[in-house]
Amino acid sequence: xxxxxxxxxxxxxxxxxxxxxxxxxxxxxxxxxxxxxxxxxxxxxxxxxxxxxxxxxxxxxxxxxxxxxxxxxxxxxxxxxxxxxxxxxxxxxxxxxxxxxxxxxxxxxxxxxxxxxxxxxxxxxxxxxxxxxxxxxxxxxxxxxxxxxxxxxxxxxxxxxxxxxxxxxxxxxxxxxxxxxxxxxxxxxxxxxxxxxxxxxxxxxxxxxxxxxxxxxxxxxxxxxxxxxxxxxxxxxxxxxxxxxxxxxxxxxxxxxxxxxxxxxxxxxxxxxxxxxxxxxxxxxxxxxxxxxxxxxxxxxxxxxxxxxxxxxxxxxxxxxxxxxxxxxxxxxxxxxxxxxxxxxxxxxxxxxxxxxxxxxxxxxxxxxxxxxxxxxxxxxxxxxxxxxxxxxxxxxxxxxxxxxxxxxxxxxxxxxxxxxxxxxxxxxxxxxxxxxxxxxxxxxxxxxxxxxxxxxxxxxxxxxxxxxxxxxxxxxxxxxxxxxxxxxxxxxxxxxxxxxxxxxx
Length: 506
Ligand SMILES: Cc1cc2nc3c(=O)[nH]c(=O)nc-3n(C[C@H](O)[C@H](O)[C@H](O)COP(=O)(O)OP(=O)(O)OC[C@H]3O[C@@H](n4cnc5c(N)ncnc54)[C@H](O)[C@@H]3O)c2cc1C
What we know:
The chain is an alpha/beta fold. It has a single domain (5-504), classed as FAD/NAD(P)-binding domain (3-Layer(bba) Sandwich), CATH 3.50.50. It has 13 helices and 24 strands. The protein binds flavin-adenine dinucleotide. Flavin-adenine dinucleotide (FAD) is lined by residues 32-38, 55-58, 103-105, 107-108, 111-113, 115-120, 228-229, 269-271, 274, 278, 441-442, 474-475, 485-488, 490.
């Protein structure tokens, strides 16, 4: 069971303010950032007996993550241009209040897992394939499957992943829900599992190990809150140490202590926007001007832009899409829920030359994979943050003409296929939809994985090409967005990274 954060903080977790200026901490691996990417890597490494320091920039706010918003406003702010200027001008600091229409990212212990939805599915093989406009991933689904199986267990999802994702198959769920898999021309029915409530917040949730059930703060990892990474010091192709600072208790906070962390390996896990900023601040990994490029997302229309009239599925088919059993909404004993989407099949995707997208059974928000665009990017702004006086983030969101093609072709296909089953679909024109798009919390790209150092920032083991001991975790390494929500794959890649580091560190 998840436990109250306040108790855990009192026992296990250090505050950077208590580490005097000039201190040098030494460890085997230092993980920076405590979202799902960082906590998963730290958990797996300490479980294998590796000494880990996990630093988190946020001050201790207990379980009230909203209390971190004033600090986030100071430290995550900057300028957002391109499509952001009209659609989401405050993107970098959303949410700032509980009334904000969009929520993007958190700077707090647990990261954005403090309020994510837990919707999970592995990337499909086509998501990782090279196709026009999409570079392909240097890893295949076969490479990832053993780690997806471990991630499925770590996330306490329903059923057994098997060798190839059995617990995500539509026929598997049709059996559990006593439902029926619908057939829609050109589309697959794909199932999404939702983590149970006790496992959502990665700082508060417990993990299983031989030593018992515990949070990351109760594990052997040395967790330090109020420890913001300032710079990654490197020379001759190696990181020598990290410069880290804490904040005092004044309002607004001011720098308190500054200390150094030396490790055999470093894992940067600050989320896709901050990962790029941290590398740019340290001039690290950017030999080919790739850091910060290809910022992507699963763009989502804020309103319902697809209207579906007349039911086109029978009751048993509709229940599968809604994740309902004959008795109504379904959850397992660990709180897992499920629902289905219509997604253009791999063959349709290749034939139409489109990005991936999904359609709900009736619900009409449009959600799609944007095309990688090098001009959609993060750079450093001329302004500095008011606490540590470091250059702030500048982020530009650009769509490509291919994104309009994805919308036009997929909505035309959905209309035709639904109409052949007796339903009626109408949709808004692209220009209107474009004016409605938000990033929707899935921040992807900016330090992408590639075998070629000229075309990406990290290699397939997530090591920065030009530095022998710096690794990046999180969806910043995804070469394309795919159609699955990113965090299940983030967790999978962090388990795989920990496995790699265990071998590399002996
Ligand atoms: C409203 C919403 C709903 C979502 N729902 C889903 C969903 O259903 N399914 C899904 O797959 N994904 C979902 N997501 C996305 C999901 O939250 C992210 O993919 C995930 O949190 C990313 O994990 P991460 O560890 O890479 O980054 P984060 O969770 O952003 O964590 C980054 C961490 O780094 C820390 N940090 C930053 N800078 C520094 C620094 N300088 N020094 C030290 N620490 C630093 C931050 O404080 C934070 O703790 C949702 C997101 C939002 C906003």
